[in-house]
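[job 4471] stage=fold_predict status=RUNNING
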Amino acid sequence: MSVGGIILGPQADFGGNQPATEPSIRSIFTSTRPTRAYQAANSAGAKSTASPPSPPASAPSTHADKSSSALPDLTSGLSDQPIVLDEGDRQIDWTNSFHGLSTQPFSKEAAEVLMQPIQPNDVEVKPDGIVYLPEIKYRRILNKAFGPGGWGLAPRGETIVTAKSVTREYALVAHGRLVSVARGEQDYFSPEGIPTATEGCKSNAMMRCCKDLGVVSELWDPRWIRDFLSTNAKEVFVEHVTTKRTKKIWMRKDDEVRYPFKRTSGFGKTGS
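[job 4471] inference complete, writing structure tokens
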């Protein structure tokens, strides 16, 4: 039987009692109303999808501003005040305590290590003629006198960061007693150098505290400095290999001129 150009099988029945494997006549001939309604719904949905309502105008994106503000500005201060612990009466607050100061001298053995004469071979000379001892050698002297762990530096306040330098006050404590208080300082050239400057500031405070223990006290003696420079240092003319500028610098007699400078015989003269 053929209906509308579609051939129906012998088991087709308009009553809907055909086997499950045969298509139903009602699935072939459907009403046009549901189809049109379905098409109308699809058409409305397509229009709503094609042209969604425009969102309300929003402020310009500030993603870049948020990213930049997320990075801390170390030049505004480190906010690293010392923590005050509450551990009972036995706790000593080294941020303001002077516990043990000048109660008694250290042992004779420790005093001999602290006040031993400075070795000229340990002294370095800056180009401007300033003599100094590297900070690691101060630590070696303290470790030898008090033992590793027998001394320490306690911060007395917050780190202060200015436009060009870092400064903080520290207390030198040895064998549970306050020895000295000094403020360290260190210059920096960019905000990225502030962490390194804070470490240099701590070492600078340690070296200043060591003056009260008599450690390498010769470095603060003007007569000793003049004698050391006349015996162990020299002034030479050097020229910068890039800028070609010539200047006079101090250096140890057993040192050599290093890059980016080279030795000259004077202003405008090149030497060996």
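[job 4471] summary: The first strand starts at residue 2 and ends at 3.
[job 4471] exit 0
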